[in-house]
Amino acid sequence: MGGWTGIWQWVVVLVIVLLLFGRGKIPGLMGDMAKGLRAFKKGLKEDDEEATAKAPPKALKSETPPPADASFEASLKGHEKDSAAKG
Which sequence spans correspond to the domains of the chain? Predict the structure, then answer.
């Protein structure tokens, strides 16, 4: 007699549950529980959709670099001339 896993214990529990709730109430309770689970899953799905809709789009990497600024290029050319004159 060790534990609460015997078949007769489960039969007794089932009989007590049927006596307390009756045959008609149990399917109704299970139906309500199923509706609640469906509503919960729907809410989770809607939250995920809202989160993805609010997220900014990811930037795509382009193969070509953006054009360089003309003033930046001029400063580089001037720097190259200075380093060539020193060297």
Answer: 24-54
- Three-state SS for the chain is CCCCCCHHHHHHHHHHHHHHHHHHHHHHHHHHHHHHHHHHHHHHHHHHHHHHHHCCCCCCCCCCCCCCCHHHHHHHHHHHHHHHHHC
Task: Count Cα neighbours of 6 within 13 Å in the Cβ-side half-sphere.
Answer: 6
More confident residue, 61 or 16: 16
Alpha carbons 73 and 85: distance in angstroms, whole number: 19
Give the per-residue pLDDT at 18: 84
The answer to whether the predicted template modeling score (pTM) of the entire model surpasses 0.90 is no
